[in-house]
Amino acid sequence: MSVLEVADIFRRHGDAYRRAHDGRLGRVERRVMSAIELCRTATLGGHVEACSDCGLVRCAYNSCRNRHCTKCQGQARTEWLTARQAELLPVPYFHVVFTLPAPVAEIAFQNKETVYAILFRTVAETLRRIAADPKHLGAEIGLVAVLHTWGQNLHHHPHVHCVVPGGGLSPDGTRWIGCRPGFFLPVRVLSRLFRRLFLDELHIAFEAGDLGFFGDLAALAEPVTFIRRLRELRRIEWVVYAKPPFGGSAQVLAYLGRYTHRVAIANSRLISVTDHDVAFRWKDYRHHGKSKVMTLHADEFIRRFLLHTLPDGFHRIRHYGFLANCHRAAKLALCRKLLDVPTPAPMIAPADEAVSKQLLDRCPCCGGAMITVGTLPRPQPSRPSFWQDTS
Hints:
It is built from eleven helices and 13 strands. By secondary structure, the chain is α+β, with helices and mostly antiparallel strands. The protein has two domains: about 5-70 and about 350-375, no CATH class; about 85-265 and about 305-340, no CATH class. It has a five-stranded antiparallel beta sheet, sandwiched between helices. Helix 3 (about 75-85) runs antiparallel to helix 8 and helix 5 packs across helix 6. It starts with 5 loop residues before the first helix and ends in a 15-residue tail after the last strand. Residues about 350-360 have low confidence and may be disordered.
């Protein structure tokens, strides 16, 4: 039985959605829709392969490689995890989540590039500043931060997942300072500093003219109204959640593999699509994560999916502290020296990815090797502009 895909929904309802929202649909959203619709179809070209044993011939079409496509994350995830394996340290790892309140999420949606960048900076600064305080840890930490903008119901819900080693380098770089067992940093202290840093940067962006407002938020363009909104946001609690530490490096990699290359909804959650509606599974965390089925009009499903498109070139996975790209190799070498552990061996591809690749290379009828025997060129016009995407 064939598996229902987001691409099937876009192919069936995408043209109607474009017509209905022609004046409000942006370039990025149009390109994402086209990429998903054309992924692994003849339009993108491909190759012909034949079984060396039974002679079965099949066509294999190219992927769109768009980071919002549900079918194009497997290889990217494998390559990313391979690089991360060599960076793991033999210490507990913690998972900390920073969430924007709904009134800030509204501003973020209308100013994605600016506000999401502020979110990343202030999350990293919050963790690093509190960790560096001798009252808490007194160390330079490292972290991997991943932006998610969705909840289970596909509404806009921007939050950042952070995976953080449980400890860090002493200020003079001569020793490793570990966290207390089972405890990283106090979430209330993190929450309040995060709120202050974020709102301060948001105010700076407003003063610099880097924020735009329209529709229901148009009144925020007035300085008096914007300042009033900031005051209101300083009086509410901001949610920071620290989960228990991971059990080991295998769990860290498993977590990273699930979260880093996700899109708004996986194909596996889709149940049905009709001429009018789309049904999918979701977990209602207000009712203890109970699994439910949600049915949306196809137009609404596409609208919610497209809420989570990111600006061109925006990096949704970022590294900070001793894991920052500029000095990661040297800092990790120092960490291993202080922890007295060797550099880990190169990672072998995860078993599920290796099995998937092996299955693709084998004949579905007899198990023989599939050999490329020809190419399938793309029809004119040539390569679409959405071909390459940056994560």
